[in-house]
Design a protein that fits this description.
It is a single chain. The chain is mostly helical. It has 2 domains: about 20-75; about 90-134, no CATH class. It is about 70% helix and about 0% strand. The chain is built from 7 helices and no strands. It has helices spanning about 20-40, 40-55, 60-70, 75-90, 95-105, 110-120, 125-134. The longest helix is centred in the N-terminal third of the chain and has 17 residues, at about 20-40.
């Protein structure tokens, strides 16, 4: 499983008194996930941006940000979020799967298929990726 606080950076010179605590970050992530499930992608994106402001390399926040961006059809922003996530964690299967969904939405079938293949390679339990490969 991904490291929750992978976005913490010991060289971050921000005033720690204004930085989100780990508990507050976890709560924002939970709220953002719930908003995505409820279809409130704009508010979910706002929460992920707050979290990413303090933890710019936070894997789950980057992932949920990309999901919210895709559902808002902001494909380039979603791809940018995923690119950063994949650079941080190249074996993050859900990032590859999300990339595949975006590329399919853009009509880039061959690239989408390659992304779904990467997703299935890195996380064999991603059923949506397997279905897209069949």
């Amino acid at each position: 499983m991904e490291n929750f606080m992978s976005g913490s950076n010991p060289t971050d010179h921000r005033d720690d008194s204004t930085k989100l605590s780990a508990e507050a970050a976890a709560e924002l992530l939970s709220q953002g996930r719930a908003l995505i499930q409820a279809g409130d992608f704009s508010d979910a994106q706002d929460l992920m941006e707050r979290l990413l402001n303090d933890y710019p390399n936070h894997s789950e926040a980057l992932y949920f940000s990309a999901v919210a961006q895709r559902f808002r059809e902001n494909y380039q922003a979603a791809l940018n979020s995923l690119q950063k996530l994949i650079e941080i964690e190249p074996t993050y299967g859900r990032a590859w799967q999300e990339r595949g969904h975006i590329l399919m939405a853009q009509g880039e079938t061959a690239d989408a298929r390659a992304a779904f293949q990467q997703a299935a390679t890195h996380n064999g339990s991603l059923i949506a990726s397997w279905q897209m490969l069949m």
